[in-house]
Design a protein that fits this description.
Blueprint: E1 3-6, E2 9-12, H1 16-25, H2 41-59, H3 63-76, H4 83-95, H5 99-112, H6 117-129, H7 133-146, H8 151-163, H9 167-179
Antiparallel strand pairs: 1-2
Helix pairs in contact: 2-3, 2-4, 3-4, 4-5, 5-6, 6-7, 7-8, 8-9
Length: about 180
């Protein structure tokens, strides 16, 4: 790490991992390096801890508790917009088999964080699982236009072609994925 002394205060450059954690907490956006919301760092750490607890509840299939905890957090922090909140909403609704709500959570995440392709990729995979192949393909192509080396979505396009009964086209996508 690049450390320097300035006015008696130690400073260092942010690593890629640091930036990723700050983005997940909502302190900076993925592309502008600015705060997604104005959030006091101490409050952000507390919110992050609560989100981890909610995530554990979802993992333990205690979805009613997780949903209540998430709702309390959102009620206490009106206007809170953090990528991790949307991930938890998606996981929660999926665990509860409320797929319409899960898809809406992803769509809202994409609207609020348009530069985070992970939400678009997750939506494409979810649409595929729900046999909504044309919509899944549209999401794949949207991400691939920005990131043509996205192997997972290139493979998903092949899987979509298979489900559509077009195995020759599927092979083309699989070959393309292998070449990446």
């Amino acid at each position: 790490a690049d450390h320097s002394q300035q006015g008696g205060v130690a400073q260092r450059e942010l690593s890629a991992g640091d930036k990723e954690q700050l983005q997940a907490l909502g302190y900076i956006s993925a592309f502008t390096s600015q705060a997604a919301t104005s959030l006091d760092p101490k409050k952000g750490v507390l919110i992050d801890a609560r989100l981890r607890d909610i995530s554990q509840l979802i993992g333990q299939k205690r979805t009613a508790e997780a949903e209540a905890g998430l709702q309390r957090l959102l009620d206490e922090n009106p206007g809170l917009k953090m990528p991790h909140v949307y991930n938890l909403k998606y996981k929660l609704y999926t665990a509860e088999r409320e797929f319409s709500k899960a898809l809406n959570a992803l769509r809202q995440a994409i609207a609020d964080f348009p530069d985070i392709d992970n939400f678009k990729q997750t939506l494409a995979l979810a649409l595929f699982d729900l046999k909504m192949y044309d919509k899944a393909e549209n999401r794949c192509r949207e991400v691939l236009a920005r990131d043509p080396r996205n192997t997972r979505l290139t493979i998903l396009l092949g899987e979509i072609r298979e489900k559509q009964g077009r195995p020759a086209d599927a092979l083309g996508f699989y070959a393309q994925a292998l070449a990446i």
